[in-house]
Structures are given as structure tokens and as C-alpha cells.
Amino acid sequence: MSTRALRLGTRRSTLAMAQSGQVADAVRRVTGRPVELVEITTYGDVSREHLAQIGGTGVFVTALRDALLRGEVDFAVHSLKDLPTTQPEDLVLAAVPVREDPRDVIVARDALKFTDLPRGSRIGTGSPRRMAQLNAYARAHGLDIETVPIRGNVDTRIGYVKGGELDAVVLAAAGLSRMGRIDEVTDFLSIDTVLPAPGQGALAIECAAHDADLIAALGALDDPFTRVAVAAERSLLAALEAGCSAPVGALADLLADGQIVKEMRLRAVVGTTDGTRTVQLSTTGPVPETHDRAMALGRELAAEMLAQGAAGLMGERAQ
Question: Which residues touch 138 (CB under 8 Å, ≥6 apart)?
């Protein structure tokens, strides 16, 4: 490989720059080459519409992929949960690094936990998935909350709480951790309360399919357990024909006996945003040894969910 600087395409947001900077450091270590960040503005960054209105799928990704295909950057870093489930033939996911904490978290006024919020509390989130599960949990446990749709970066969202407009906001633990702001969290939401978005907490490092040397070099950052887990989650999402803004939560986690990983459990939920109806199922089996087996696991659980009426809970199914 040459010694010229590798160009890493990234969104301009503070979070994207933080996580791309961390990947850049790792790529420098494994390749010995300099890495420069190339900031790219995506449609999702400039649109003020709610993600559910603009479709969600690909709005943070398309501009980065176009830059890759035009050769303006050598590789790109995405939040994996933002990626459409269909992979373009001329691009490849060269690495899926070790996943960060996939949980959602609450940042609330007065350092309150979710279950301690007073009656009528307003909780901000831009995610139909989070709305569906928070409202379902509240209904089941006698809590009185109102979920409020919001957009904006981390500062904007936390600002709604600090300014008194909202009582709490829901964010991803992984993003706050990568930004060095995890100490602002007032409550970590249990996976049993809110399942994360498919792929949440994981990054995707993507490059052109023809660049075999770069694919091999970036492959040093790949974590095979994270890759099969997110493959199962994304396969389920695809089989439900749901986009990344749909009210679908899914998490594949590894079950270990001591230090030995024995099985993988895939859990998923689909629900109406008001929390009145949900379909939640899980399956456990051997850790998939291949990408195809991980994909099959996701499809199988999705088929069971569809048989129980999941499609009718998602509104218009997003392609």
C-alpha cells in the first residue's frame, strides 16, 4: 500500500467527528499511514423534518457513499444503525469494530431516573421505537408520561432539559460515551425496558469493493462477534421491511459460560408508538458461524413476529 494519507469521510456532527476521530486513530495504528478527516454534509444533517417524516433510511449515509463511489474519500465511518439494510454491490463493510454499550439512556432534570419522573413528565425523543417502548412500559407500570418528538444534536436535546422545556430526553449510551459525556446520564434504560435500534452502539467502516489492500488493512479492526450480532439484527429489520426510523427494537447478545461464548440470543420488538400494542419475541441458539447463518436467524424471528401481526403495528411499512 502507498504511504499517502487515507481520506476518511465523515458527517460533520460533533458525535460523528468524535467517533470518526477514534476510528482514524485506530487506522493509523494498523496501517502506519496518516488519516485525514473529510467532512461531508448529509441530507439528514440539513433537513429540519423529523426522521420518521423523511423516511430515516439512508438520510445520513447517501452523501458519504456518493463520495466513496466518486473516489473523493477512501473509506467512510457510519453509525451502523443508520445504514440501509441493502448493501450496494460496489461498496463493502470492511470492518465492524467492537460494539459500544447498545443501551438507551435518560438525561433528566434533577438527576431523576425514568421510573422516578413525576406524573405528566414530558420525555423528548426523535425515535418512534423509543416512543413505542417507553409508552408501553409506562402503560404496564402505571406511569403517566408524554413522549414529545424532537430533533437536533446532543447539545440541542439536552438543552431542552436544561431549559425546562422537557423533563427528560432519551439518547444512546454509545454516542455520549464516544463524546466523553457519559457522566451526564441520569439513568441507563434496561434492555428489558427498551430494546435498542438494530445495530445501535456499533460502527460500520465502509470502502470501495475493488480496494482489496484497504479492505484487508481495515479488516484488522473487525470484531467477528459484533458482526454476526448486527447481521442478525439487520436481517430481522430487512425481513420486516422496516426502515431505520420504524418502531423496531432488536438486540443480539452473546451468552457465555465463564469465558466461553456458548450461544446467541436475539430479542426483538415492534409496537405502535402510543404503546398500546406490541409484539415481542426472542430466540436463542448456537453462535452463528457464518454471515448467512446470522442472517437466517434474523429472518426466522421476523417471520414469527409477522405471523403474530407485527406488520400492522408499524404503520406504513418503510422500504
Answer: 144, 145, 275
**65 near 253, Cβ under 8 Å?**
no
Q: Hey, which residues does 39 pair with through a beta bridge?
A: 10
Per the residue annotation, which of 74, 82, 167, 187 is the catalytic one? 82
What are the pLDDT digits (tens) for 36-73? 999 998 655 454 554 444 344 466 788 899 999 999 99
| Residue 90 annotated in active site | no
What does pLDDT average to over the chain? 90
76-99 tens-digit pLDDT: 999 999 898 888 999 999 999 999
Quickly state the pLDDT bin for 153 (edges 50, 70, 90).
Answer: confident
Dihedral of CA atoms 266, 271, 275, 277 in degrees, nearest 10, equals -110
Q: Residue 186, Cα to own-chain centre: how many angstroms? A: 21
**DSSP E strand stretches across the chain:** 6-11, 35-40, 75-79, 91-95, 104-108, 121-125, 145-149, 168-172, 187-188, 203-208, 248-257, 260-271, 278-286
Taking CA 200 as the corner, what is the angle to CA 23 and CA 254, rounded to the nearest 5 degrees? 100
- Give residues with Cβ within 8 angstroms of 243, minimum separation 6: 55, 56, 57, 84, 318, 319
Is residue 195 helix, strand or coil?
coil
Instruction: Report the predicted TM-score, pTM, of the whole model to 2 decimal places.
Output: 0.89
Structural contact between residues 162 and 156, judged by C-beta atoms closer than 8 angstroms: no
Q: What pLDDT, on a 0 to 100 scale, did the predictor assign at position 258?
A: 80
